[in-house]
Amino acid sequence: MAQSTEGPEAPDKLETLKALLDAAAALVAGMSGTPDPLFARLVHVFAGMPAEDRGPILAVLEREVERRLRAQEPSETLTGFHIVRPNPNAQLYICGFGPPPTYHNRDAVMRATLRAARLLLLSPRDSHDEWVAATLEAFAVLAPEERTALAQHNRDMLGLLERFERQATAKAS
Question: Contacts from 114-117 at CB under 8 Å and sequence distance 24+?
């Protein structure tokens, strides 16, 4: 008759493992002090994040939270700078530039146009010289064919803007 390899201690080992897992689950659940579902999401995202990204992203979160807490202090600042709310469109990963994508959908083009226009419109007027220097520096990085394409794009944009203004004026009449 073959003897069981599990032996009488197998149920004890399973009970010990279950108790250990239950304790670990309770510890993780209690880390926030309250059953906060957002904390659980944060832990889940952090656990799924590539290990090499955790340190830099945690440093960004620490810095931003520190700035937010400092901004809530009732002290006068010389700049009048204050943090109002989190930016729901913030990005933690830097997008690299490479060859242009082969496909643009209408929504992506519209969003890119809005971003570019608002970037120009939101620039402080007193930093025009800085904008000129940065723009010339960017042009120096572009290849001649890219500068030619940019010039054509800007001519097209100006034509489209004029066309829009004519249509808006005609509708208003």
Answer: none
